[in-house]
Amino acid sequence: MVLPYGRQSIDESDIEAVAAVLRGDWLTTGPAVDRFEQDIAAVAGVSASVAVTSGTAALHTAYAAVPLQQGDEVITTPLTFFATATCAIWQGATIVFADVSEDTGNLDPAAAAAAVTGKTKVVAGVDYAGHPIDGPALSKVAHDAGALLLEDAAHSIGGSLDGVPVGSLADVTTFSFFPTKNLTTGEGGAVVSTSTEVLDRAREFKSIGYTRDPEKWHAKGDQGGWYYEVHNLGLNYRLPDVLAALGSNQLHRLDAFKKRRQDITDRYNAGLAGIDALRTPAHREGADPMWHLYPLRIQDGRRRELFDHLRGNGIGVQVNYIPVHWQPYFAERGYRKGMCPIAETYSEQEVSLPMFPDLLDSDVDRVIELVREFVGA
User: Which pairing describes strands 278-279 and 294-298: parallel, antiparallel, or unpaired?
Assistant: First the structure.
């Protein structure tokens, strides 16, 4: 049996929460969505959130709500899932890749500052593996340029930096609730922001761009109960109640998920410490990560061999990520290897070991033993 690198944790209370919606009147656009949005806002330390159908939809919605326009530039990291970049391109923006910090793999504020131009509209950091970005430094870079800071927190809901929750560190933050993430709705995501204007635009964009709010209508007076207006283009990114109910119930266990992920990280760290060829994940002072990944780095050039060794022994490891600018889409548009050498080196060394709340200590120990066996420790 293969040990997966990540998987959901579903219990009977999750199943009952979904079943209760199925027994009710609302499968979508109902009260479970409203409740889930309130629950997410509370965790993020903000007043409201907008639930959507995926982490990718959250990014697309956030970029649309900024709003990005043709010719705007977005500075971001190449050490991420490619949607962090491609969703901005859908809104007409140009991507400018900046390098990462060598320890965390997060967007380096100095590299981001060096990439700023008069066209910079958004600086988009990613909480790689669940370690929060340097929010204060990146906010300064963005705000000094007249831009906004977006935090792609697909890995990190429930984390914090210096006591400030992820969701309150940036102007706009996006979450993902894919099954391998820190809580799940099956597929799903959310946008939070410190700006009510951004949230209003996000809510309209994810609802196909139309509004039933009479205060926003161009037409005046009583137009009838059927009336609505479309002011801007949008998409149907509405999260259904059945999935929102699962998310709200999962949030009851978020603290337990976080503790278990930290315990697993600590166990890996202890078991793999003191081995010259290996680099365990960094943890900066003041950061309280919500570990989504355990990104081990092997520094002797044998990442492929370690990957195959673990896979061959039934351990479902992964690599996170192939640098975005190496993808053919970007290579064909002039992006080149060598642009972000720190991120590229990180990627070439990285192997994600299994990490999920239901992982047993014995499973962690088995992984540690296989890694130590490979490096001869």
Answer: antiparallel
Q: What is the mean pLDDT of residues 72-92?
A: 98
User: Hey, what amino acid is at 264?
Assistant: I
The range of the structural domain enclosing residue 171 comes to 12-251
Angle among Cα 371, 375, 377 to the nearest 5 degrees reads: 90
Q: Is 258 a catalytic residue?
A: no
- For residue 347, the SS3 value is helix
Answer whether 60's CB lies under 8 Å from 87's CB.
yes
pLDDT digits (tens, 9 = 90+) for 161-171: 999 999 999 99
Q: Are 137 and 107 in contact (CB under 8 A)?
A: no
Q: Give me the pLDDT at residue 10, please.
A: 97
Task: Look at residues 251, 266, 284 and tell me which one is the last residue of a structural domain.
Answer: 251
Give me the pLDDT at residue 148, please: 98
327, with CB counted inside 10 A (0-12, 13-18, 19+), is middle
Handedness of CA 1, 362, 313, 323 (dihedral sign): positive
**pLDDT value of residue 194:** 94
Based on its alpha-carbon atoms, the radius of gyration of the chain, rounded to whole angstroms, reads 21
Are 76 and 216 in the same domain?
Answer: yes
Catalytic option among 181, 206, 220, 259: 181
Backbone angles phi, psi at 14, to 5 degrees: -65, -45
Sign of the CA dihedral running 59, 64, 67, 73? positive
CA terminus-to-terminus distance, the chain? 26
301 and 174, same structural domain? no
**357 preceded by cis ω (within 30°)?**
no
